[in-house]
Amino acid sequence: MPLKLSLKPNExxxxxxxxxxxxxRRTTLLLQNKASVLREKDIMQLEEANTPVRRIYLPxxxxxxxxxxxxxxxNEFALRMTEFMSVVRVPAVLEExxxxxxxxxxxxxxxxxxxxxxxxxxEAERLTMEGTEHVAQSVSEGAATSRNAA
Length: 150
Description:
Elements: E1 3-7, E2 12-15, E3 18-21, E4 27-31, E5 37-39, H1 52-66, H2 71-87, H3 91-105, H4 109-130, H5 132-149
Antiparallel strand pairs: 1-4, 2-3, 2-5
Helix pairs in contact: 1-2, 1-4, 2-3, 2-5, 3-4, 4-5
């Protein structure tokens, strides 16, 4: 079944590692086979990975764009997910973290990215409610505890 992409004027996508930019008019693309595709809004630059969940999202995105699991990227993902899960106490969020991990382990990176975006929404809500410093401190403390335990 083809994937239908509707692109806004000048919108960028990454298609199997190549950056493609639409022209000055809206257009539709039909992809007839499986491909790694990310819209501009879903692409994260290294400097944007500035919160705990964004640090989880980035290695998943890189594995997705590479089309395979990279040991370095997987290890970064596992470390960041462990740190995050060590400070989260909400069962539904922990369950979502387990689902993200399961999808990464089975190579379903796009699904993991979609779930991770939901975690970003939760994180943004928590950061707004509690203040950035408190959550960042909790994650840092959780990371230190995880490293000391290892």
